[in-house]
Design goal:
Elements: E1 3-6, E2 9-13, E3 15-17, E4 30-35, E5 44-46, E6 60-66, E7 69-74, E8 79-83, H1 86-89, E9 94-99, H2 106-117, H3 126-136, H4 138-146, H5 151-159, H6 167-176, H7 196-200, E10 240-242
Antiparallel strand pairs: 1-2, 3-5, 4-6, 4-9, 6-7, 7-8, 9-10
Helix pairs in contact: 2-6, 3-5
Length: 243
């Protein structure tokens, strides 16, 4: 169970459920990871309240390509690789959130997975990591003001390698290659400058997080409440879930 608070928003509560392929995640969904000592979670969980999405801090992202498979850019092993999802489902210090792209159907999901599979085996892009690190530093932010918000793009052009990937750059590229998502939302920016958090919070690429009442939740989930002034609506599915 994880509770997070922000000064302006109520606490959110996250409840664990068992991962069920084709029910609460599918091929082509995008996963986002939150890891930390304050996380205790097994399985998949969900929470409600679209206005609370920015309270969740994510540091890694991946593409679902099967029931227990994902594709991710792995810095530790300097490669883009196929990995099991179960290693995240079973890690009590990790939450994994899945977001469903807009206009999603099975064909779109397989197209996303196929595009990601073509990048397996390529190297990690340490230049892109340096770009995000420099632009996020205090001197970088000051310089960015002088350059009217263009510092990260300039660094990206200098340091980015077109055939190497960091996690968020890979996911942004795979989505940007689909006509439905090309240059929408955060994807208007160069892929190498986009962070996992920026992707996670984007409202143009992904289906909005729908709120629902306990009566409409399927039997596979344990209901949790968000302490929010917003009155929940109803919906048959869960568009944003997490572990």
């Amino acid at each position: 169970m994880l509770e997070t608070e922000s000064p302006d928003k109520s606490a959110i509560q996250v409840t664990d459920i068992a991962p069920e392929f084709q029910v609460n995640y599918k091929t082509g969904y995008i996963g986002f990871l939150n890891k930390g000592a304050d996380v205790t979670s097994i399985g998949i969980s969900y929470f409600t309240g679209w206005d609370l999405i920015s309270d969740i801090h994510v540091t890694h992202t991946l593409i679902v390509v099967g029931e227990d498979q994902c594709i991710e850019a792995d810095m530790a092993n300097n490669t883009v690789k196929v990995c099991t999802l179960s290693k995240y489902f079973n890690d009590p210090n990790c939450q994994i959130f899945f977001r469903k792209p807009i206009f999603f159907n099975d064909s779109v999901g397989y197209a996303i997975a196929h595009k990601a599979s073509l990048e397996v085996g390529k190297e990690y892009d340490f230049g892109a990591i340096l770009t995000q690190g420099l632009s996020g530093s205090f001197p970088g932010r000051m310089l960015d003001r002088l350059l009217t918000g263009k510092l990260e793009e300039l660094l990206g052009n200098l340091l980015d390698h077109p055939d190497k990937w960091i996690c968020s750059e890979l996911v942004a590229y795979v989505l940007d290659e689909q006509l439905f998502y090309r240059d929408k939302g955060i994807l208007k920016r160069p892929n190498s400058t986009i962070s996992p958090q920026e992707l996670f919070q984007d409202t143009k690429i992904f289906t909005p997080w729908k709120q629902f009442s306990p009566d409409t939740v399927t039997k596979t989930v344990t209901v949790t409440e968000t302490k929010s002034k917003t009155k929940p609506g109803t919906d048959e599915g869960i568009d944003l879930i997490c572990k």
